[in-house]
Amino acid sequence: MNWTQSEVDAFKQGVAKKLTDATLASIFHRSEPAIRRARQRFTPEHVASRTAAPTETKAPDPKDDFKTEKAPLDFGYIPLDVLDGDEWTRIGLVADTHLCCKEERLDALHAQYDLFENEGIKDVFHAGNIVDGYIPKINGGSVYETSIDGQAQYCVDQYPRRNGVTTHFITGNDHEGWFQKEGFNFGAYLEFVANTNGRNDLKYLGHVEADIELVAKNGKTPAGRRQFMKIQHPGGGSAYARSYKGQKMVESFQGGEKPAILVQGHYHVSGYSYDRNVHIIGMPGFQDQTIFGRTKHLRYEIGGVILSFKLSSETGTITRLQPEFFMFYDRGFYKPFLKSDKTLIKGRTTIVTG
Ligand SMILES: [Fe+2]
Q: What is the pTM of this model?
């Protein structure tokens, strides 16, 4: 059925008034498909706007903005400031420097402390075996000094000292522990020798392990939520898997005795894992593989850690944590970069074989 001009005009008015297809069909005595075709034919601009995505915008209602409203915890929304409301804390971690051993890596250790200083680190925690100790049948042929005095003095003379950086160290049951006789505490003695040599940057924390309390900046850490970092030099041999010893240690802690962070020296291998709410940092050392290590098939990794974390003053718990491992290759890799070698040795010496 053809549309008269007056019908077309009336139809356009009906479309402008946003009448439905059904209403237009009853007004103009046509089927709804015919009305849809008429829309295409007489009012294509309305058809386009009708099928396009709604462009209508309304002013945002603060109540609709989920993030701006502090919903109650039982609603399932955790305010971000509970998780991320405090500043980062950064500390340095080292272990197993074994000074006086011929396999010590003073080159890497000094580079590590250069990095600490550059990065503004003020406190470095040492997880044990700062010196190699002395037992003739184990390391008798591989130490520069055999006496307690000699190793303490060597350590004070050689251990990195940097502006504003304090090293807090524990002692292990092995190595410096070999000097730990009844009535004599090697760690305390080492700090004493350091002090008498004008070094007050070497602070003894304890034998085998020490707990460092973590206190939120505003001092409002909720009661009953004591958080601490345990620095430890456990005994025993290495495990096949690098994370195994740390996990077994955390499993053995009683519920209330768990640290927030566990730093383990002794194994000379790097690792990070998280178990029973404990961040476990496995520490590499600063000693190349020794003959003893080779006979036991032990890997010796070289490196230190910058540990960054946030302690929430709302909950008193660790909310964010990043261990940054700064790893070194073996001594030979750095030979071309040593200042002395760079100056003295020009070019590479080769033998072309026949
Ligand atoms: Fe060690």
A: 0.76
CA angle, residues 216, 220, 223, in degrees to nearest 5: 105
How far is ligand 1, taken at its centre, from the CA of residue 96, in Å? 4
**Distance between Cα 99 and ligand 1 center (Å):** 10
DSSP string, 186-209: HHHHHHHHHHHTT---EEEEEESE
In the chain, the N- to C-terminal Cα span, in Å, equals 105
Ligand 1 centroid from CA 156, angstroms: 19
Mean pLDDT of 291-305: 89
Domain ranges of the chain: 5-77, 83-337
pLDDT tens, 193-220? 999 999 999 999 999 999 999 988 776 6
Distance 197 CA to ligand 1 centre (A): 26
Contact yes or no for 148/179 (Cβ under 8 A): yes
Distance in angstroms (rounded) separating the CA atoms of residues 9 and 241: 84
pLDDT of 273 strictly over 80: yes
Ligand 1 centroid to residue 31 C-alpha, Å: 91
Helices (H) and strands (E) in the chain, counts: 13, 11
Fold of 83-337: Purple Acid Phosphatase; chain A, domain 2 (3.60.21)
Tell me the CA–centroid distance for residue 268 and ligand 1, in Å: 7
Distance of CA 280 to the CA centre of its chain: 10
Any idea what the Cα angle at residue 110 is, between residues 209 and 106, rounded to 5°? 80
Of residues 219, 214, 212, 213, the one with CA closest to residue 313:
219
Tokens of 167: 């090293």
Which amino acid type is present at position 93?
A: L
